[in-house]
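Q: I have 409 residues here and want to know how they pack in 3D. Can you give me a structure?
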Amino acid sequence: MNSLRWLCCVLLVWLQSVAWAESLNFSIQIVNGKHRQVVKELIREFEAGHPGTTVRLTELDNADYNKFMGDGAYAAQDVVWYFAGYQLKDLVALGAVMPLDGVFNTTLGTSPFSNSLHAVTEQNKVFALPISYYHWGLYYMRDVFEKHNLKEPKTWSEFEAICANLKALGIAPLAISVKENWTAAAWFDYLNLRMNGLDFHTALLGGRESFTDARVRAVFERWKRLIDLGYFSIDTVSADWRAVLPNMYRGKAAMSLLGNYMMVGVNPQYAGKIGFFRFPTVDPLVPSYEEAPTDVLFVTSTASHPKEAKQFIAFWSRPETLDKYNNAMGLLSPHSASKPEQNYLNDTGLKMLRQAKGFSQYFNRDTSKPMADKGFVTMGNFMREPDIDKTMQELERNRLQYLAPKVIK
């Protein structure tokens, strides 16, 4: 009888522990083994600090995660990893995202995330925590610049002068691979940001401005001039952006407009020879906005454990958490007190981003998926055949079809 009583007590304690424990559901897109490892390490750290909570992780690759989000499966989660930009705003408009005011400092000006808050704010409410971003700009071969006494350009006229000098020397000023098309969109994004500013750029890709606008024509005219002058070495065969790198190593091409992800594809023996500068100023009256795709965490409005979900968000908002995550991934933390791994490209990129007046998210993150898919093809075709009227008409036709019926304010 005593043994039976003891077993009943043990069972009761176990049942109570199960009842008290909360399982927090967290989904994230995993890109590689190192990513999986650091995510699981941080989950264990969170659980150690919150003994009553366990985290149930859903990890998916890129294709499966896109389907997961598109099918609405995220609604069964408490905390979800996603992108800032149009897609997040779309979910907010659907009422699928819980506001995070009070979970971390969201006051513009005093928040350590101040320069990223605009990307996660709607109607004066913050709906997600920025956890990672990375910089875009012009990567170049230092030895080519040094050999020909070229300096990093600050203005568009200086940039064009460098392109002219390089071409006269028989060196392709700008390298790009456009078989996948999406790489071409960076030129549209940056020229539009430098000439027309972030508000117009966001409104245009959100469907609230027309692609037949004279300001858009001016962007394509400036871009076409670079193509017509033969400043691009355009690879239309290779399927990967990495195809531009060997020509840069050999001194056949000098510069390429890319994101800092490019360093994962760089041959280590050339890594120290690569320089970086921000996209040149076109109109000095337009503030310095940068392309900085941002990853975020949000709490679903259907969360079964909103208290624990907000505690998880608060844990991720700490600079030490973000540093551990981003240093493992080669990304940058949006937290102003973060300390990224020290290297030339990280330091230069972070300084540029912290000085920026605001960020765009890249063409496909700033608009709807159908518009992005069509737009990438149009941008790639413009690089091959720079017909301004045809390009603007295609983009406008797609805007009317995919964006105008459902404009995200």
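Q: Anything worth noting?
A: Residues 5 and 16 are 16 Å apart (CA to CA). Residues 1-20 have pLDDT under 50 and may be disordered.
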